[in-house]
Amino acid sequence: MAQAQQDDAEKEIERYRAMISDPMSNPGFLAVDRGEVLWATKRGKKEVTLETCDLGEGPGKLEGAYAKLPRYFQDADRVMDIEQRLLWCMEKIQDLDTADVRRRRFGGPDYTSDMQDLVAFIANKSSGMKYQLQESHPKEKEMLAAGEALFFRRAGVMDFSCATCHGDDGKRIRLQALPNFSKAGKDAQDTMGGWPTYRVSQSQLRTMQHRLWDCYRQMRMPAPEYASDGITALTAYMVKMAAGGEITVPSIKR
Amino acid sequence: MKTLFIASSLAASLIVLSGAAHAQQAAPTKVDPAVVDKYVQSMWAKAPDPWKTVPVQDETQRICTETRNNPSQADFTKIMEREKASVVFPADGKVIGDWKAGERVANTGTGGQFTDGPNTPRGGNCYACHQMAPKELSYGTLGPSLQNYGKDRKFDPAEARNAYAKIYNAQGVFPCSQMPRFGLHKFLSEQQMKDAVAYLFDPESPVNK
């Protein structure tokens, strides 16, 4: 009896998931459109657009750039994820004071987020492509090793690590299925291939920065610094687990 | 004698459990702890008080991290002894509170998050990980089912006391357990832990129905 109800509950969740992945009704594409406008908007003290920003594939080249992030950038001598790189371009190319952009890093009911919109636009230019892990530069290697260590690092009043909830196959928290990121393969591919995503429950296009902020919140850890190297390291580690996975973004999720 | 037996059978199940997990995972990449710390700092060096110290690991967290929850026999014993010694039982010796309040402890998943206020209700969120009352279908599977927990143990007061110790500090029973140490971290109050035990051990509790 309880088992039958359980199966029904799971079927219901599947039905809901199928419904919200209909691309024709995905408001995430509004963020893509806003991002496209922002990319070509003159801003900052230099009154220029972002169109010469090099996301790794050459200035202004967007196709496939997201699929190779995070990666090492010679000009900054750092490994960066998409959000760190965009902030860098705003500051270096546009000479934009990014305080306001950072304040609106996560969009809310009354305001949009430039970062969410730009990430949606740029990531969408890698839709249909596969994640290509960058791990040749020593700083990329360090980033990946640190990301793995952070993934398994237990701390805080709950004693949790990411692996507590994402370390085994087929686990659930309440009724929510938990993808396993402790090994390379399908879970990581399916998950990472769907970020950034439009979150129906939040009515926002969300990026990986937001997702990890939210997981650290559940872990009762302090709010992690936006666009910090720790978040980039975790993202790099999960891209490694997702290597070869196809990107289809923006996706739409609960 | 009895604790010894429990300890060794748990040790055996620990090896079985983590052995299964490790079979799929790649071997850990070696990395200098100072490098990892730099990344930890990048996320939290600017965290306000009293949050600032939260990311700092205690000895148990450090060993469980380093060994991926698979401590050496020596560390296993050391952790168990240290964590068990932290358990403070209620002064009056009564570990069974009110099962209805315990049901709230088991269901409440809020409190202590950086978006919560100081008055946000706190709970143990046991249902996140455990099946408990059969009527509650929304349960997680990170921990074992606790259905009929008290009934299966014949409502034995000694077992209730063990459950209190488990909730207070899960690692005093099972080193590197994934279950939070609710009492050690003062995340739950003594009353809340007693109520959670009642939820498991009161014959009237839906867990035992």
Would you kindly provide a written description of the structure presented here, covering whatever features stand out?
The complex is a heterodimer of chains A (254) and B (209). Chain A has 254 residues and is mainly alpha-helical. Chain A is 43% helix and 8% strand. Chain A has helices at residues 2-20, 28-39, 82-92, 99-103, 114-124, 138-151, 162-166, 186-192, 208-218, 229-241, and strands at residues 71-73, 78-80, 171-173, 176-178, 197-199, 204-206, 251-253. A three-stranded mixed β-sheet of chain A has the order 6-5-7. In chain A, strands 1-2 form a two-stranded antiparallel ribbon. In chain A, helix 2 (28-39) packs across helix 5 and helix 6 packs across helix 10. The model of chain A has no long low-confidence stretch (mean pLDDT 94). Chain B is an all-alpha fold and 209 residues long. Chain B has a domain at 79-109 and 121-208: Orthogonal Bundle (Cytochrome Bc1 Complex, Chain D, domain 2). Chain B contains eight helices and no strands. The radius of gyration of chain B is 18 Å and the shape is globular. The chains are: A mainly alpha (254), B mainly alpha (209). The interface between A and B is large, with 50 and 52 residues.
